[in-house]
Amino acid sequence: MADLLPCSLVWLRRDLRLDDHAALAHAAARSERVVLAFVLDPVLLRGPRMGAPIVQFFFDSLAELREQLREVGSDLALLEGDFATELIRLAKHVDARAVFFNGDYDPAMAQRDAGVSAALRDAGLETHAYADHVYVRAEDVVQTTGKPYTVYTPYRKRWNARIAEKPRAPYPSRAGLGAKLLPAARIGPTHAVPKPEAYGHTSSDRYPRGGSAEAQRLLAAFIADDANEYLDRRNLPAVEGTSRLSPHLRAGTIGIRTCMSAALDARARRRSTFAGNIDGWIGELTWRDFYQQLLVHFPRLAHEPFIENAKDIAWRSDERAWNAWAMGATGYPIVDAAMIQLNETGWMHNRLRMIVASFLTKHLLIDYHDGERYFEQHLADADLAANNGGWQWSASTGTDAAPYFRVFNPTLQSEKFDARGAFIRRMIPALAKVPDAYVHAPWTMPPIVAAECGVAIGQSYPAPIVEHAFARERALAVFSHALKKRM
């Protein structure tokens, strides 16, 4: 015990759990006592990068985490204000000698961490940072030349080889942690977990539920059931074909090693046909690591397109078109249903994210940055790396982007992935009685059919804001002009 630190702080950020937690595991191994702390940042919570769904998700998760700590006689030190000032104050109060935390690949957050760490060290505190948010660190999957990968397929090949060599087991669970946690009485009074309204956000019972218990439930249900048909169902927005774990991975209510371990164990135990499905899901987790490592190697992606010439794309400023897209009133049912799902539930199916992003950037020629920010403000899983990566892919401006001449036809996408219109009808009641033959393009209904199902195009449901063939040709002309040096 003589070599152990008497007390250490674990500075929580996007790792709101007690299991499979790198910083917590290391702090517990090296300290006699541990205090978990979270610092509320009023500027960030009220800023443009934080929307109501993600704030509510974080606060729900903090409340659950606090209850878990109180059940074993400790508490969450919930602070508010300047990160370094609050952590130093708490460290002095509990006689902590070190601060352990998990690193963040978001360039702005990495800069914050560097500044806070310097201030903590100046105050005489040790600082220890760990890789926790990704399965494989950015520096561990690079080309033989040392250069980063900018295309997904070769990245995944090397990523697969890396995990085959050295799969990462989850960090020790909360079992036995109770003896390490500082008693609540010694931590003293801390802030109550606030409501989103305290920072200008509106709560909703339709937003995804936070907390590690919900994350574990979703993972178990997915592995036991939905993963069996993942490849067939993941692109169908009308069914529960995905894990729904993205908000939990974003907030860290579940560890990425826990997810990978469950997937690999299930693949090893079950029939061969299951392997392809689970590998499809592991591929999505690989995309997550891929986008995260891009931010490390190319931090400018947070602000600008990867393709230099893409800065010359002549984006349009069209308030009417923007409002129609944002409010789900473009006249294209699959686009509108997707945006309504986003606005009302704080979540959007991944296939739909590609469809609406393509529509905004190609059909309406509106800057992908605007769509990226809108998603950031409305998604419970808003993550800079994945959000930026997805938007740059759709806008044909990124590292592994879709060719600029790929312009999704929203009607064909709708027919393919929502064939019977079940998702559309669920989200747009005005189209509930439209026959299958017209639900993807209701403006094509004969007047008698429209009258029978109670739809008046341009009144009860909008006419298309732009014609697809025209929009496609316009996008090709604009993109080819800007990107011609790359061709």
What is the highest CATH level, the class of the largest domain? Mainly Alpha
The outline comes out as: globular
Query: Roughly how much helix do the residues carry, as a percent range?
Result: 40-55%
Rg from Cα: 24 Å
> Total strand count, please?
5
- How many helices? 21
The CATH architecture of the largest domain is Orthogonal Bundle
* Unreliable sequence segments: none
List keywords for this structure.
single chain; 487 residues; mainly alpha; Rossmann fold; Serine Threonine Protein Phosphatase 5, Tetratricopeptide repeat; DNA Cyclobutane Dipyrimidine Photolyase, subunit A, domain 3; five-stranded parallel beta sheet; 21 helices; 5 strands; 48% helix
Overview of the molecule:
By secondary structure, the protein is mainly alpha-helical. It folds into three domains: 1-132, HUPs (Rossmann fold, 3-Layer(aba) Sandwich), CATH 3.40.50; 134-169 and 212-297, Serine Threonine Protein Phosphatase 5, Tetratricopeptide repeat (Alpha Horseshoe); 308-481, DNA Cyclobutane Dipyrimidine Photolyase, subunit A, domain 3. It has helices spanning 22-30, 42-45, 52-71, 83-94, 107-122, 152-165, 184-187, 212-224, 230-233, 246-251, 256-269, 272-297, 319-327, 333-345, 350-363, 368-378, 384-394, 410-417, 422-427, 447-452, 468-483; strands spanning 8-12, 34-40, 76-80, 98-102, 126-130. A five-stranded parallel sheet has the order 3-2-1-4-5, sandwiched between helices. The mean pLDDT is 96.
